């Protein structure tokens, strides 16, 4: 869940009073595809939408509308409250609430009588989700999905929560209807106060103090953070556990640069435990969204593109850092999962797989012991030891969630197998089980394609190519880059957010731009193709024109071309994906360095300076900002490789873990500031530079590495 500070105590107190009056109950939540019938008793305004989540509700008896002028005008004309209900297609508890309440005619009658009901796919419209999630978090201290928020006809929120059981839901609907009819002035007061809290929740005042970045800030941040490390199972010492890739990328780089062994060991422990746990699909590759327990054992089984894209980047970098075969295996298998189950082709990736199949969470992924014996035959003994069948893998109702808990060497010794036979056996087991599993009824696929998530996957593929020199990863990455920069490009040079069935729509958000810019810079580092820098620079110019706030030096989440909502939000805290502002600040730093653009570098520093005082208190929520601060504190090595063999030299350099570096190159003369004047006929040379001051060029990797301290 997103963590935030309550900045308006009056809003909080008034909201608590209102909650007490309504006997509010809240919990974190999640969804399930339902087979479409040829004839339906009910059809509502969602029937023409493309979002899989909205289409799941198109034949509810609730008269759902998509977010838009028609619904908002109806609420104003009829003086009805808005019910804004937000979820996503892979969310288990969203499905539960739909089945219990939104498919129920009695409940629907009550909803239709008193509310204009709006369904929102949070992945298509994160801007709307941000507003009403913040409102619920201000009222309750937590949030989740399904998100159900009640608002005045103009969109100002006044009450809400997450999942409600049917009886509680009906009770709330009735009490709200009475309150709105008999005491409208009180509802108006709640709405005014809560809306002001939403607006103020992420207001950023520009820090006019000198831009001074010190290692002590990060040291203090990590010292506090270490208190929440789970020293036995990795990750945080709480449940549920989310992978949070940007956390471990930061901690890995921080540990490497500062020689912090305890932090280094925690990163390795976490990566090992996640890779061995039930959160990881042991036979098919790819990670579930989170683990419900502290052991990484029982996941919520939905699998999201954004998680897996970032985890590919994490494990690829970790392999370069630690040289563990396991980490390459996890990255390779996760890419294989994405290509098998989430890939449309032509560089386009779908969004997610549902947690449920046949109405049951996780059914697609779990195994009965007898079924495993029947499928595997003589291989069962190896599988039972390797995947802990009937032991740690045992879950509920006789099902097993395949997981590992000891290194291969221990099993090799117990079974007296050589490594080659062992690996062949595991591959054979996985192949058999995957074939059987693919004959099961699969979880629902969310087949929309989001620019921001595809950009994360683009970067994951580029990172994997750089780490492993697998040419096929680069080829797919090039297709994804073309999809984003061509298919998702608007006529005015901006980006669309969404793509489905050959149609691109929804104006892009800051995350679409920032993740794409970072990924395109990484594509340049992988290929030395100037085209990707040009594309990144053009998108950056567009962002400056339509998202930048000159007063704070930060960026809004929405463009100035978008219709106004009750608040225009800024995304500042890193969560399961980096905050779009931290991503944009990193993008400006990287692009500013490569292009020698001082304006970009200055803006990046202003953004970091605005945030730095908040970082110490909650490291997990500022880890991507921490990555940027590492670049400001430690020397950033600008490694220029110029000459006909520049790609071969780049591949050599990438085998060494240098967390603070940018790699540039060219096979010929280049006018990039960091490459200008460095081409020498007949030679390929490394230039190791810091702040554009370069040491003597060398053709030998060993000599270049000596210049990197």
- Strand order, main sheet: write it out: 1-3-2-4-5
- Percent strand equals 5-15%
Radius of gyration: 26 Å
Distance between the termini: 39 Å
Major sheet size, sense and barrel closure: 5 strands, mixed
Poorly predicted parts: 1-37
Structural category is alpha+beta
What is the helix tally?
A: 26
Mean pLDDT across every amino acid position: 93
Q: State the helicity in percent bands.
A: 40-55%
Task: Tell me the number of strands.
Answer: 23
Shape call: globular
Structure summary:
This protein is of the alpha+beta class and about 700 residues long. The protein contains 26 helices and 23 strands.
Walkthrough of the structure:
49% of the residues lie in helices and 11% in strands. The protein is an alpha+beta fold and 709 residues long. The chain has a 5-stranded mixed sheet. Strands 21-20-22-23 form a 4-stranded mixed sheet. Strand 20, helix 25 (646-653) and strand 21 (661-666) form a beta-alpha-beta unit. Helix 20 packs antiparallel against helix 21. The relative contact order is 0.09.
């Amino acid at each position: 869940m997103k963590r935030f500070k309550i900045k308006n105590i009056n809003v909080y107190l008034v909201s608590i009073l209102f909650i007490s009056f309504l006997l509010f109950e809240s919990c974190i939540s999640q969804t399930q595809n339902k087979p479409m019938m040829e004839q339906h008793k009910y059809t509502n305004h969602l029937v023409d939408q493309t979002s899989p989540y909205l289409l799941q509700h198109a034949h509810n008896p609730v008269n759902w509308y998509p977010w838009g002028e028609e619904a908002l005008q109806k609420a104003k004309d009829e003086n009805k409250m808005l019910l804004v209900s937000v979820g996503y297609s892979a969310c288990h508890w969203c499905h539960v609430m739909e089945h219990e309440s939104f498919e129920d005619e009695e409940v629907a009658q009550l909803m239709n009588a008193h509310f204009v009901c709006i369904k929102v796919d949070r992945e298509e419209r994160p801007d709307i989700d941000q507003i009403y999630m913040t409102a619920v978090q201000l009222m309750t201290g937590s949030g989740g999905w399904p998100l159900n928020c009640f608002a005045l006809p103009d969109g100002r929120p006044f009450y809400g929560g997450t999942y409600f059981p049917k009886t509680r839901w009906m009770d709330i609907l009735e009490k709200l209807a009475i309150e709105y009819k008999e005491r409208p002035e009180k509802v108006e007061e709640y709405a005014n106060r809560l809306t002001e809290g939403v607006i103020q929740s992420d207001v950023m005042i520009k820090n006019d103090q000198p831009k001074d970045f010190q290692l002590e800030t990060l040291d203090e941040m990590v010292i506090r953070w270490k208190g929440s490390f789970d020293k036995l199972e990795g990750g945080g010492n709480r449940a549920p556990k989310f992978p949070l890739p940007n956390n471990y990328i930061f901690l890995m780089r921080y540990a490497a640069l500062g020689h912090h062994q305890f932090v280094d060991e925690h990163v390795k422990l976490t990566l090992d435990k996640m890779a061995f746990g039930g959160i990881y699909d042991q036979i098919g590759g790819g990670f579930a969204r989170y683990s419900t327990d502290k052991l990484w054992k029982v996941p919520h089984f939905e699998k999201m593109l954004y998680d897996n894209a970032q985890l590919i980047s994490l494990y690829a970098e970790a392999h370069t850092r630690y040289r563990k075969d396991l980490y390459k295996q996890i990255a390779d298998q996760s890419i294989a999962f994405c290509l098998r189950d989430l890939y449309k082709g032509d560089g386009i990736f779908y969004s997610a797989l549902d947690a449920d199949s046949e109405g049951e969470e996780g059914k697609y992924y779990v195994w009965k012991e007898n079924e495993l014996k029947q499928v595997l035959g003589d291989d069962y003994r190896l599988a039972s030891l390797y995947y802990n069948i009937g032991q740690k893998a045992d879950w509920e109702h006789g099902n097993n969630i395949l997981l590992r808990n000891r290194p291969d060497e221990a099993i090799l010794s117990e079974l007296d197998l050589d490594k080659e036979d062992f690996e062949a056996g595991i591959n054979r087991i996985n192949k058999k089980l995957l074939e059987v599993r693919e004959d099961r009824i699969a979880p629902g696929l969310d087949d929309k394609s989001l620019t921001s998530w595809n950009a994360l996957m683009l970067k994951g593929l580029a990172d994997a190519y750089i780490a492993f020199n697998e040419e096929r990863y680069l080829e797919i990455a090039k297709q994804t880059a073309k999809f984003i920069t061509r298919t998702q490009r608007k006529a005015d040079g901006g980006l669309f957010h969404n793509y489905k069935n050959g149609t691109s729509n929804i104006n892009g958000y800051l995350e679409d731009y920032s993740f794409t810019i970072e990924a395109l810079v990484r594509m340049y580092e992988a290929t030395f193709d100037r085209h990707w820098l040009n594309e990144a620079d053009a998108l950056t110019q567009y962002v400056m024109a339509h998202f930048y706030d000159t007063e704070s030096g930060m960026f809004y989440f929405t463009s100035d071309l978008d219709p106004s909502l009750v608040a225009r939000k800024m995304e500042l805290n890193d969560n399961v994906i980096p905050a779009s502002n931290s991503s944009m600040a990193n993008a400006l730093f990287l692009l500013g360095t490569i292009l020698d653009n001082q304006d970009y570098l200055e803006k990046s520093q202003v953004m970091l300076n605005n945030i730095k005082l908040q970082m110490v208190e909650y490291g997990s929520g500022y880890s991507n900002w921490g990555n940027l601060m590492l670049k400001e504190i430690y020397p950033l090595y600008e490694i220029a490789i110029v000459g006909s063999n520049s790609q071969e030299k780049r591949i050599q350099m990438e085998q060494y873990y240098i967390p603070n570096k940018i790699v540039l190159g060219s096979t010929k003369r280049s006018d990039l500031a960091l490459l200008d004047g460095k081409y020498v006929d007949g030679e390929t040379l490394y230039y190791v530079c810091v702040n554009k001051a370069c040491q003597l060029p060398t053709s030998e990797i060993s000599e270049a590495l000596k210049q990197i301290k």
